[in-house]
Amino acid sequence: MKKIISFLSIVLLSALFMLPIQAQTSKKTSGTKLEIYYFHSTNRCVTCNAVESNAKALLQESFKSQADKGNIKFASINIDDKANKALVEKYQISYSTLLIIKSNGKKTDFTNTAFQYAKNNPTKYKELLKAEINKNLK
Question: Contact, 59 vs 74, CB < 8 A?
Fold first, then answer.
């Protein structure tokens, strides 16, 4: 009986000491800081494709480590696909849209800038998008 009580005491103490470690670990690994969604329809123009391809290229060029760690996530969302209906409705999307969403829910609509520069001045588009991402990472 003494052995069982000793064993249970050791297990209980071990569990209690592990709680703070688990809490710290979950804080470190939880949460994306930014989600970048590019919403588009099935049929896309050259500019629509440029918005997506240049955003992806920028993430690889300038934010690869944050993306690899999961701090920044990029998703291309087809608004015509029924599987994406909930997300499309959540953000009230009806046409091509580029959103930057912080973990606190703050949303930046970068669509106008993206469509203004992505095709004809991709360098400027990437520069402006990079600045916006950096601003939202703070």
Answer: yes
